[in-house]
Design brief:
single chain; mainly alpha; Arc Repressor Mutant, subunit A; Tetracycline Repressor, domain 2; 2 domains
């Protein structure tokens, strides 16, 4: 009995995967719609019918990636009740996803190319994603195990910057796995890098001196 061939991916996925490969290789601005159609082995008209512009392709990549990322994170934390541990595991899942999908890295670095309505839609997707992470941080803070008054928005920026930056230097044959890298970053944040014997006696006062606490309306910590 002849072996059945694997079903071809849907046309939408073929176009998006082709776009991700080319955007990563050549950059968003240098890639043409015709090149994407050729890479996907589809007719340019079929591409235009589904995605009239490159912006719409990049936006679709972003939405597909964000949905898949959140699915992975929610699966990683589903059975964990401790909010602080949920945050650690969520960071692990985020890094795993980022390093396993080339398309996620395209979105990470090319989103600034979006203009007009596509950019507005991207901002909505970004806000939804950031709201999810803000929720995890507020739940962790609600346990009383974080320093009271710590600027959670800056903490989110720090965690995102560290995790997303791994995509710039990570190699699969390197000395650490994605989980080990994520846990190391978490350890730096959660337990500090200064030895306990050399830490200030009053951590709260030290954090206030370093402007690490939340600021009132119009404060620098609230500016983007």
């Amino acid at each position: 009995m002849p072996k059945s061939r694997a079903a071809a991916p849907p046309a939408e996925d073929r176009f998006l995967d082709a776009a991700a490969r080319l955007f990563r290789k050549k950059g968003f601005a240098a890639t043409t719609v015709r090149e994407i159609a050729k890479e996907a082995r589809m007719l340019p008209g079929s591409l235009h019918y589904r995605y009239p512009t490159k912006d719409s392709l990049l936006l679709a990549l972003m939405k597909r990636g964000e949905d898949a990322d959140l699915v992975g994170i929610r699966a990683a934390i589903r059975d964990v009740r401790d909010p602080v541990e949920r945050l650690r595991l969520a960071l692990r899942a985020r890094l795993r996803y980022l390093l396993s999908r080339p398309a996620s890295q395209v979105v990470l670095f090319e989103w600034r190319s979006l203009k007009g309505a596509a950019r507005e839609e991207m901002i909505k997707l970004r806000d939804r994603y950031e709201a999810f992470w803000s929720g995890l941080l507020y739940e962790a803070a609600g346990t009383g195990r974080l320093h009271p008054g710590i600027d959670l928005r800056l903490l989110r920026f720090l965690l995102f910057g560290a995790i997303n930056g791994v995509a710039l230097w990570y190699h699969a044959d390197g000395p650490r796995t994605p989980d080990e890298i994520s846990d190391a970053f978490w350890g730096f944040v959660a337990y500090g890098v200064v030895d306990e014997a050399h830490r200030p006696h009053d951590i709260g006062s030290a954090l206030r001196t370093l402007s690490a606490m939340e600021m009132g309306a119009g404060g620098a910590a609230e500016r983007r």
